[in-house]
Write a structure and sequence with these properties.
The protein has 8 helices and 6 strands; from the N terminus they run ααβββαααααββαβ. By secondary structure, the protein is of the alpha+beta class. It folds into 2 domains: 3-116, 2-Layer Sandwich (Zincin-like), CATH 3.30.2010; 137-175, no CATH class. The strands form 2 sheets. It has a 3-stranded mixed sheet. The relative contact order is 0.13.
Length: 177
Amino acid sequence: MDQNLESAPKHLTDCQRHTILQLVDALYHKAAQHFSCHAEACAVSFKLRGRAAGQWRLRDGVESLHFNERLFCTDPTEHMPDTVAHEVAHSVVYRCHGRKGVRPHGREWREVMAYLGFQPRVTHASSAQTLVQALDHHLYRCACRSHALGPRQHRKVCDGQRDYRCRLCGHTLTPAQ
């Protein structure tokens, strides 16, 4: 495994958190000028777990942004600032259009991402190696590439309950040695 991945910290420093919070605030202000929505940033949490690098949530009319600290630490160039902009864009779309009739990664969201200066990518492109290191996943291979399976998927393979296939080449995934 890559030496840099093994030594990657599991927690963001206070400076890194502050940088993310500043970016959130700057993106909201930039969007507010163009899209005529309020510029106040919502609450930010760094406790998101799993494969998602970020999430925008709306609970009982209260917005919040959630970021996966472990993924940010392991692969910061992949997630900063793109993931932050991605989640802020969801919030801006909600503030401008509400929830009805708007697709999560639809035209409105893509327009906000473009205005903020980012590619409207729906998923992050962290490598399988990065996911294995950051999220305690298990490395598998097929004929064409590496894959990261989560603990539950790995257990099902080991117990003989399930086989997984690559969506590109169709070969069965096997544990990497």
